[in-house]
Design a protein that fits this description.
Helices cover 56% and strands 0% of the residues. The chain has five helices and no strands. The model has no long low-confidence stretch (mean pLDDT 89).
Amino acid sequence: MKELTYRTAMRLPALYSAVFHGLLASFHDVYGDLEPASALALLDQLDLSANTQHLAELRHVLAAGHKNHYRSPGAWGDALPSCS
């Protein structure tokens, strides 16, 4: 449902960081529910610094098909060592 909003916001490079933080929050929110493939596609279109905090972890969990932190509580922790 938020995808259209994210895509609209992505028209402005100044909002890339906000879109990233929205995706990150959607993964961690109790009621968050991302479509992993769509969220990863959006994430891949953002021109973010490679050292953006939590970027690698979010990519990892989305690529693994996880919709949110609460459905896959160990996924984020599993992403941390592989992203170091």
